[in-house]
Every structure is written in structure tokens, then in C-alpha cells.
Amino acid sequence: AQKITQTQPGMFVQEKEAVTLDCTYDTSDPSYGLFWYKQPSSGEMIFLIYQGSYDQQNATEGRYSLNFQKARKSANLVISASQLGDSAMYFCAIYLIQGAQKLVFGQGTRLTINP
Amino acid sequence: GAVVSQHPSWVICKSGTSVKIECRSLDFQATTMFWYRQFPKQSLMLMATSNEGSKATYEQGVEKDKFLINHASLTLSTLTVTSAHPEDSSFYICSARRHTGAGGDYGYTFGSGTRLTVV
Fold it and tell me: Phi and psi at residue A114, in whole multiples of 5°?
């Protein structure tokens, strides 16, 4: 089984600042993948970034980077130069590569960018 | 890119009636489809996993007879909420998994969701 924990219900950040959203996970399986999604008020799930458990380097996608600390079982999302449009719910998710490959989500963090 | 179409986007139904939600992969074959439920300001809770041509696997606590899932083809899965009640009001969202994890979203494509309101 796998579990994801996001401990920040809400974050408030000033525009143009960097923000880190926390995510810790728990699994005994060595092969897994970690995702971050953005969910605006419209409800759609927008894929942001992916990190595989065997990836040596931290994933980066434009303004998004994933601070992957395997020993600590953490996969924090860093958003650089935040924009007003970044205001949304952010979810961390994990899947096990073997088996049903179902995505299990964390509780989410509501990010608000202030002008 | 991979696209998943989910219909309807929103539906209002009377208590006691059944509602069917469709999830269709438009440009790829989905080996597995997942159905999630999301209450306001909460996380996505996995309800069930369905594979084409076989029975769905339900998560613990999800009523199989209430939430009927059919995955008749590699491009279509349906969720039917039977005898709906106000407590079934929620946001339902599907996700389709491609056989290969390649692609910008690493194999998971989400529908746009269905907001169900039971009155």
C-alpha cells in the first residue's frame, strides 16, 4: 500500500516569490512514481511534474521543480517566480509501478498568490 | 496529446433516480480507468479501478451496487450512480491509463470531471 501526506492546508505567497509545497510519502515498494497536479477552481487536473523512484536527478519542468529526497521520503514541489495564475489546489500523488498502478492522492494544498 | 472526454460536466437529478457518467479516451486505448470522488475542498478519493472486459476493483468502503462501473471497451468506461441520494452529491472524475507511460503526463490522463447534485 502507499500513502501520501500533505501537511499544508493553505499557503499564501506574494507574487514573484518562490514557494515550496510539502509532500511526504510512505511505501515499502522500491518502484514508484510521484506526481504533482494543479487543480484550478474549474476542477480539471493539470499534470505538472513527475519523479520516478529510480531517477537520479530532481525533475524540472519550466518554473516547477521537484525536490526529491528519497531517504526522507519527501517530494516537495518548488514553484519559482509565482504568478497570480498559480492560485489553485495542488495535489501530490504516488503510484506503484507494479500492480494496479492506481494513483493515490494527498490531501492537497490550497495556494493563494497575492498581488 | 492524450485526451479524455467526460460527460456530462454537471448533472442535477432527483433523489432515487440513477445517473450515468461516461469517460471516453479519444485518441488512445486505455488499459485501465480509474474513478475518483472529490468532496468540496477535499482530496480525490479513489473509488474503483476498471480494466476492459473485467469486473471493476472497488476500494474499501465503496458500495459496488451503488456505484456500477462498466468498462466495455478500451476507450469507454461508465459510472452509474444508482438510486442517488443527496449524500452522493459530489465531483466525480475519471482517469485513463495508457499501456505505455510515455507522453507528457506519464500515462495518466484525467477527464474534466462531473459535478453531480442530487436534490
Answer: -95, 140
Write out chain A's pLDDT in tens, 115 residues.
789 999 999 999 999 999 999 999 999 999 999 999 999 999 999 999 999 999 999 999 999 999 999 999 999 999 999 999 999 999 999 998 887 788 999 999 999 999 9
Pairing of strands B114-118, A19-21: unpaired
Does A43 contact B91 at a Cβ distance shorter than 8 Å? yes
Residue written as cell 518562490? A18
In this complex, is the C-beta atom of A100 within 8 Å of any C-beta atom belonging to chain B?
A: yes
> Looking at this protein, which amino acid is placed at residue A115?
P
- Residues in A closer than 8 angstroms to B97, CB to CB, are 101
Q: Which of B32, B106, B114, B115 to mutate to test the interface with A (most CBs of A within 10 A)?
A: B106
